[in-house]
Amino acid sequence: MRCTPNSLPRRTAPELPLILFLLFSANCPWVAAQTIRVDTTPARAIPFDPDKALGTSVDILSSRSIDAVYSAPILKESLSAGWGPITYRQNTELTIAAWHWNPNGTWSDAAHQSGYFTGSAEPKEFLGHSYGYALPHRGSTKSDASQGKYSRLTDGDPATYWKSNPYLTKHFTGEDDALHPQWIVLDFGTLQDIDAIRIAWANPYAREYVVQYWLGENALEKPTLGVWTQFPRGAVEEGNGGTVTLRLSDRPVRARFLRIRMTESSNTCDTHGSEDPRNCVGYAVNEIYAGNFAIDGSFIDLVTHAPGQNQTEATVSSTDPWHTAQDIEPSRDQTGFDLFYTSGITNKLPAMIPVAMIYATPEDAAAELAYIEKRGYPVSYVEMGEEPDGKYTSPEDDAALYLQWATALHGVDRKLKLGGPVFEGVNEDIQVWPDAQARTSWLGRFIDYLKAHGRMSDLAFVSFEHYPFPPCEINWSDLYREPELVRHILEVWRADGVPADVPLMITESNLSWALTEPMADLFGALWLADNAGSFLASGGAAFYHSPIQPEPLRSGCGGYSTFGNFVANEKLEISQHASQYFASQMINLEWVKHGTGVHQLFPAEADVLDDAGHILVTVYAVKRPDGVWSLMILNKDPSNAHSVKIEFRDSGGKNVARFAGRVTAVTFGAEQYVWHPEGPKSHADPDGPPATSTVNAPGQAFTLPRASVTVLRGSIE
Description:
Layout: H1 16-19, E1 34-39, E2 46-48, H2 50-53, E3 54-58, E4 61-62, H3 66-69, H4 72-79, E5 86-88, E6 97-100, E7 105-109, E8 114-119, E9 129-134, E10 162-163, H5 170-173, E11 182-194, E12 196-201, E13 206-216, E14 226-236, E15 243-247, E16 253-265, E17 284-293, E18 299-301, E19 313-316, E20 323-324, E21 328-335, H6 337-342, E22 351-355, H7 362-375, E23 379-384, H8 395-412, E24 418-423, H9 442-452, E25 461-466, H10 478-495, E26 504-509, H11 522-537, E27 542-545, E28 554-556, E29 559-561, E30 566-568, E31 574-577, H12 579-591, E32 599-602, E33 604-606, E34 617-623, E35 629-635, E36 642-649, E37 659-669, E38 673-676, E39 683-687, E40 691-696, E41 702-704, E42 708-716
Parallel strand pairs: 1-36, 3-5, 3-27, 22-23, 23-24, 24-25, 25-26, 26-27
Antiparallel strand pairs: 1-33, 2-32, 4-21, 6-9, 7-8, 8-20, 9-21, 10-17, 11-16, 11-19, 12-15, 12-17, 13-14, 13-16, 17-18, 28-29, 30-31, 32-34, 34-35, 35-42, 36-41, 37-40, 37-42, 38-39
Helix pairs in contact: 7-8, 8-9, 10-11, 11-12
């Protein structure tokens, strides 16, 4: 047999300590080991505490699974992945729903059990469950919701209506309504001939508005590749409400997207009366019709009016959070805070807690934090809202809400650390339609708004989600891209104006936003280790991997898989550990040591490249509080082992050191885990565990098995 890393024989786990971790140059004197270099310069170290920086999350659960998730056996398994703190994900805003974090509370219209709900801040009975409530004045057709939800603008029912968020009006922002224009966009799906629109206004209606069409690519998904153009007769300056039919131009315009942009309200009250000022501000529309005029002058409506997803798609700038007790959605459970905090899922650490913002009230958010503090539950951070970019909320609107909520929350406790905006997982800057100054960066404009109002001190952190790869397009070479993707997006947020002293946090993450087979394959494990390591190495402050609980094995792109750390059935009965479970343990139980305090992360790099210049080996070097050096090393070469020397030296190239004495070597890779995609019977075989050995460091070379994560721990000379 030739003595090369590539020709090492496959061995079972008991044999691994003998051959896979150490390859002495004395045995293979002609093998040229490549080098890992760790920069030990103290000034370049990044301090972090695993109990604050490496966490997990729990999201909304189905009502039939919540009891299982919080059962003692599953909690024990979930926590065994080793993550430290937890973030509570607020999901109702993704489905365009209001959240009753406490089922006990008061309605603004108590007589009719309707209006704006404020949860009770007074602890009484144990809160085990909480639910979302559908919004009767919903304006957008699509969301993360299941079937049955749709826009009231094109539902064919003249009695229903969309209404904008009252908290974006002068009554609450203190700013002219024109600074927070509200809009409706219709997407016909294909180009249509448009020269007429009919708007059935409700109250309050727009006194001043314009009708526009989009010239360019997709108006919502590619907002900088086009321009909104006003129809020749598309401006209305003294609107009187009612049903209005407008001839927009003498000739039809070919357009897919149509926008109504509103800047002045009638401030007349909606169907809920005049007792609550929130009923009498903003804009409301019963139904929209758009198309063209026939030769005989009759109006030809091209809008599909239907109560469902087959209606002509509407998207709106905001939605009024008004709702009723009958709008409860009991099938999906946002865990009650008492269950969350007393179950053990928080790992006895302060938790990141969300407040609803896009479809909520500041009074309710303040009551939520007052309740939590009265219970004595520890809070690390408060995350404001959820994915405003996915709801096409403008940065100025989101910032206006943010400041109102911050005022209310800091009225409860000035020490609360508030942040957001909780972006969807993106790899590039989030672009929006340009403002009057031609600015298109969402976060840049959000930051500018806070600065202009003298409120940057209310932003204690910036959070975002990380779902880097489209689910159906993942291939092995994407592993090489992960460190750069993470580094790049952190640089983007800083370039947008986030101050250096405001921490950046990934508060929800996985390989992709939709289920895909590589999540359960070995690919998912290597990606996770690289993701967590590169985020901290690039200056990220806190990383939360999702989710903590098991989820059922089910079909996704490329085969059956799971978001979770476990292979489980519909009852959440766990049959195996999935690849990301083992990666989690490698990060949390082998690389770092929770509960010991601040670690130091030093720059490190390897010179192991393939013929295309891809970096095949990435390394994350930590010095633990006890002085032990711990290196998490990824060999992303799917076919070859690689022999590497490891050097520790300062930036001047002096004081070169190497591992000395006993070194603990732990590896998880292709020899320990293989995913077998067999439909509903998909499984792993072998299914771990990582291979561990303790060896005397020869000061020579270590072998990194193919497709593996290896942690080396020991002292240096």
